[in-house]
Amino acid sequence: MYATIQCSKEDVLQVLAYVKDPEIDTVSIIDLGMVEDITIENHTVKIEILPTFVGCPALEIIRGNIVKAVNELEGVEETTVTFINSPPWTSERITEKGVQGLKEFGIAAPPKHMKEDGSWHVDCPYCGSTYVTLENIFGPTACRSILYCKSCKNPFEAMKLISTTM
Question: Which PANTHER family match (predicted)?
Answer without folding.
Answer: FE-S PROTEIN MATURATION AUXILIARY FACTOR YITW
